[in-house]
Amino acid sequence: MHTPVTIIGAGLGGLTLARVLHVHGIAVTVYEAEPSPAARTQGGMLDIHDHNGQLALEAAGLMEEFHAIVLEGRQALRVLAPDGSVVLDKADDGTGGRPEVQRGELRQILLDSLPAGTVRWGHRAAGTRPVGEGRHEVTFADGSTVVTGLLVGADGAWSRVRPLLTTAAPEYAGTSFVETYLFDADTRHPAAAKAVGGGMLIAPAPGREIFAHRESGDTLHTYVALARPQEWFAAIDFTDSAAATARIAREFDGWAPELTALITDGDTGPVLRPHYTLPTGHRWDRVAGVTLLGDAAHLAVPNGEGANLAMLDGAELGRALADHPDDIEAALTEYEQAMFPRSSEAATFEGAEIHGIGPDDTTDHTMQALHALVDRVTGKGQ
Questions:
Q1: Which whole number is the average pLDDT over 87-102?
Q2: Tens digit of pLDDT for each residue in 62-80?
Q3: Which residues lie closer than 8 Å to 132 by C-beta, 6 or more apart?
Q4: Per-residue pLDDT reduced to its tens digit, 105-117
Q5: pTM of the predicted model, to two decimals?
Q6: Phi/psi class of residue 134: alpha, beta or left (left: φ > 0; alpha: ψ in -120 to 50)?
Q7: Could you say which residues bind NADPH here (predicted)?
Q8: What was the pLDDT predicted at 45?
Q9: How many Cα atoms within 13 Å fall on the side-chain side of residue 73?
Q10: Strands 290-292 and 150-153
């Protein structure tokens, strides 16, 4: 390619794109707001699906490295009712198509696969503007700028690149997670550890839900999901961990103690994670020299697909550019025409997550959604 490729954002999608471009001999620079790879923890576990995330890793030539970080046994699934009774207990027999890895380790594999200097750390994008002939200028928070012939926004929910293409902005989805961790769970929190089992736990009810994953070792990572307005959460002082924990736990009064212990016995303070979304089916008209991937393009409520879709976006965009080295616009058109329906289909999936399940919905509605999620997790819904 005669025009440099500039990626904003060194998340999984942006790095996958950079790696696939590197495999095809295409020069690329990634600008990332964080000051270093170790500036913050990278979240919990990800199940990397055989129909999207793993395809991206194959395109990146990183399947051997991926298999080396898979956490064995973590595809096990337990579904418990609020009273602690077992609805489903599915062991990991090693045949599932959604192996689990730590997000930070996966990101490091991608970083290690790129030439030194590909990622420019400490460059927070502050704004973007067109400068003519399909070229765009990015201004960073420190006042520096870069002009590029191909700009890719891989910068997440609050993308600074998105306004070049669309006026759409994220809106609160009506649900939020509250995260907690339990460490050394098998010895210090045995009842909660037994409830979670070896992989993932789901405990659903109308308008509220508890998810938990067994991560590396015997760490339990809990996501407490609540369908509540932003004002409800704003009334909780999350700087007061004890008070915030007690308030969240009250929403689960009467639940089995081994489930509520995932909230009340947390070894870290509760962290609020509101969910935002772009309109389902969000798309834009083709604008020369710029496109988006991942959450910047199709932000949706968490349903297990976000990271996988971002990686596949990156791989597909990289391959399109490699296939059309002398026609960037043909490559971007090909990529977007496939990406739009793919992301829309994933966003409309209604699983047992409380997304779209309000506090007044019936238990039958919740259980129907639960069965849909179980089918998807176990591969029956593909």
A1: 88
A2: 999 999 999 888 889 999 9
A3: none
A4: 999 999 999 999 9
A5: 0.90
A6: left
A7: 40
A8: 86
A9: 8
A10: parallel
- Residue 40 is assigned to a ligand binding site: yes
The dihedral of CA 355, 209, 230, 305: what is its sign?
A: negative
* Mean local confidence (pLDDT), 353-362: 37
Backbone phi and psi for residue 274, each to the nearest 5 degrees, phi listed first: -65, 150
Q: Which domains does the chain have, with CATH numbers?
A: 5-71+98-170+279-347 (3.50.50.60), 171-277+351-377 (3.50.50.60)
Whole-angstrom distance, CA of residue 380 vs CA of residue 382: 6
How many Cα neighbours within 13 Å face the side chain of 342?
20
HSE (side-chain half, CA atoms, 13 Å) at 175:
23
Dihedral sign computed on CA atoms, order 360, 364, 367, 371 = negative
Q: What is the arithmetic mean of pLDDT over 209-227?
A: 94
Q: Any known ligand binding at 295?
A: yes
Please write the tens of the pLDDT for every residue from 329-338.
Answer: 999 999 999 9
Give the per-residue pLDDT at 3: 55
- Minimum mean pLDDT among 83-87, 172-176, 182-186, 341-345: which range? 341-345
Across the range 347-368, mean pLDDT stands at: 42
**207 closest CA partner among 372, 374, 356:** 356
Distance CA 104, CA 109 (A): 9
Alpha helices in the chain (DSSP H): 12-23, 53-59, 63-69, 103-112, 185-188, 190-196, 230-234, 241-250, 257-264, 295-298, 306-323, 328-347, 363-377
Beta-carbon contacts of 36 under 8 Å, excluding residues fewer than 6 positions away, are 121, 122
Q: What is the mean pLDDT of the chain?
A: 89
Strand pairing of 208-214 and 220-226?
antiparallel
The CA-atom distances, in angstroms, between 343 and each of 47, 56, 57, 140, 359 are: 17, 15, 18, 29, 27
Task: Tell the residue number behind the tokens 């409830």, with chain if given.
Answer: 195
Is residue 278 classed as helix, strand or coil in its secondary structure?
coil
pLDDT of residue 370: 52
